[in-house]
Amino acid sequence: MTLPLVGIAMGSQSDWPTMKAAAEVLDALDIAYETRIISAHRTPDRLFDYAETAAPRGLQAIIAGAGGAAHLPGMLAAKTRVPVLGVPVQSAALNGMDSLLSIVQMPKGIPVATFAIGKAGAANAALFAAAQIATTNNALAGRLEAWRASQADAVAEEPLDE
Ligand code: RP5
């Protein structure tokens, strides 16, 4: 069994359609990961346990997505030195502006790298984690460069009529 290098954490089952975009990128790059539902508000003990064991278990990044009063990324970051990549999930009431501001405005001393609202942010968080890990993993560096080349190849030089 391959040990996970990346943890994908989310505050609720309802965040999975967004956070799945991160999982799809990690699948494409053949990076081992795990997925967990961890609510800062509803399951605080699970949050502490996950954060405290993340480094000893060998996780190199935690991608954490949450919506609304989105405390999950910041609280995880408070309890682990593993880099936390925050993904603001688009909320129904405020379209994710609440999530974005909750995650991005960390006070000095405990950083969370914050990405765009929604699926684009989740996918980019996974690409960022891949780039981080690739600094010490040549095989992954090659896969990441191939992924980017294939993305570039998929962009037509001229627009077509629909
Ligand atoms: C947050 O509250 C979750 O991250 C989710 O985005 C939001 C709503 O959760 P549910 O009420 O759908 O479980 O904690």
UniProtKB/TrEMBL annotation:
Q: Where does substrate bind?
A: 12, 15, 42
Output the InterPro entries linked to this UniProt entry.
PurE_ClassI, PurE_dom, PurE_prokaryotes
Q: Name one GO molecular function term.
A: 5-(carboxyamino)imidazole ribonucleotide mutase activity
What pathway does the annotation place this protein in? Purine metabolism; IMP biosynthesis via de novo pathway; 5-amino-1-(5-phospho-D-ribosyl)imidazole-4-carboxylate from 5-amino-1-(5-phospho-D-ribosyl)imidazole (N5-CAIR route): step 2/2
Catalytic reactions of this protein = 5-carboxyamino-1-(5-phospho-D-ribosyl)imidazole + H(+) = 5-amino-1-(5-phospho-D-ribosyl)imidazole-4-carboxylate
A matching Pfam family = AIRC
Q: State the source organism's domain of life.
A: Bacteria
Q: Which Enzyme Commission number(s) are on file for it?
A: 5.4.99.18
Biological process terms from the Gene Ontology for this record are: 'de novo' IMP biosynthetic process
Q: What does this protein do?
A: Catalyzes the conversion of N5-carboxyaminoimidazole ribonucleotide (N5-CAIR) to 4-carboxy-5-aminoimidazole ribonucleotide (CAIR).
**Entry similarity comment:** Belongs to the AIR carboxylase family. Class I subfamily.
Q: What is this protein called?
A: N5-carboxyaminoimidazole ribonucleotide mutase
Q: Which organism is it from?
A: Algicella marina
